[in-house]
Each structure stands twice: as C-alpha cells, then as structure tokens.
Amino acid sequence: MNIxxxxxxxxxxxxxxxxxxxxxxxxLQKKLLDVKVYNLRDFTTDRxxxxxxxxxxxGPGMVMKIEPIYNAVHxxxxxxxxxxxxxxxxxxxxxxxxxxxxxxxxxxRVLFICGRYEGIDERVRESIVDEEISIGxxxxxxxxxxxxxxxxxxxxxIPGVLGDEESIKEESFTWGLLDYPHYTRPPEFMxxxxxxxxxxxxxxxxxxxxxxxxxxxxxxxRPEILKNAKLTDEDIEILKEExx
Length: 244
Ligand SMILES: Nc1nonc1C(=O)N[C@@H]1CC[C@H](O)C1
Description:
Keywords: Cytoplasm, Methyltransferase, S-adenosyl-L-methionine, Transferase, tRNA processing. The protein is of the alpha/beta class and 244 residues long. It contains ten helices and ten strands.
C-alpha cells in the first residue's frame, strides 16, 4: 500500500486544479497514491459555516477556530488508519528532500491542516498536531501550496509515478548535490554550443563530467550542503582539483 494524504482546507479547488493535471493526475488514476480533500466548512455547525474568528487580545486579521478543525480530524480518523497530523506554517521544521524520502519510507498516511488568515488557534498545535512543517522562511496567504509541495515531492519518488525511474537517482539532492547542467537539441544555439563530452557517447566521461559539474555548482551556490553529500574518493579528487 502506497502513501496517502488527507487534506483539510477551506479551498478544495486549489487541490483539484493541481492534482487534476499531468503526472499526479495519472498517478492518482493508477492508484499509486491516494489523496482525499476535505472542506473544513463541512465540519462547522453554524449556518454561516464559520471557520475563523477575531483574535483574543486584539490585533489584525482573523484566527482559524479549533472546533471545525477538531471535528474534521475526529471524523477523518474514524476510519482507524494511523496518521501523521501535519500543520503547515512558517514556524515549522523546514522541509527538504530528506523529509520527503523519510515520509515516503514511513508509508504512514499524512493529514495536512492548511492554515489561512493570521494563523490557527494555538490549541490545535497543542492537542491535535504531530508535526509542523514549513516550506520556507516566507509568509503565504495559506498553507495549501505547502501541502502541494510536499505531496508533489513525495509522489514523484513513488515507483511508477515518473516515466523514467532513473531520473530520481541523478537529480538535485539525491546525490546530496545540486543538479548538473542539462542540454538538448539543437547542438548550437546563437553561438552557444553543447559541451562536446555530452555528444561523445562516452558514458564514463559523461558521468564524470556531470559529477564534476554538480560538485562545482554545489561549491559555488550551496557549499553548506556538501558536508552531507555522499562523496566518493573520486569526488574528493575533483574537490581538490576545484581548489577545495
Ligand atoms: N511558509 C509556510 N510553509 O508552510 N506554510 C507556510 C505559510 O506561509 N503559511 C501561511 C501563514 C499564515 C497563513 O495562515 C498560512
């Protein structure tokens, strides 16, 4: 059984739009993953379907109420499946590829609580949430994009979702490095030529060139991630040649 996602949001259409296209649409059709989207307003009890209210203590904006979220989580969990309940917020652990791989490996269903407004009543964090995740140090209008980023980056790791499983093995962060440069036809465009080695058909030389480019690019742009990279002795030689 593959990983599954439940999503609590006041904007279900955001998910239907993104998950209704391309690779993820096909993956859902092939049941390589499962995503259920719940409209938080369906778990309110008043005729206005209220999900937010004014903040105690005053201040700008509105705060998401705990009762609808509690009702939604309680109803979703009634199927008895074990879930990791994740709240998306800028105060969470910064998301990365290692977390994507870990969540996939755990295969535990993930329930996303997507915030809106100024934020969510703190008692949700205290009594319902297992983990808080942020996709970066910036503030969005809602947590929906964060949930989609996590779903997308995990789904593409599921065998059979991408056409070519090889691409996962050699991409940014899988080596623990930034990606190498990619080229396709034409071989020359406005005087810019494709590196000869890529036209040589020599797979060993092409691999070495790509590895060198990935190391060089990582050194230039993100030297801090080198310390966690899975470097071979040959890589160490390249680093020395690159002056490190
Ligand atoms: N960065 C992030 N990573 O995950 N979520 C966010 C994020 O900005 N959330 C918004 C904050 C207020 C609003 O409720 C939703």
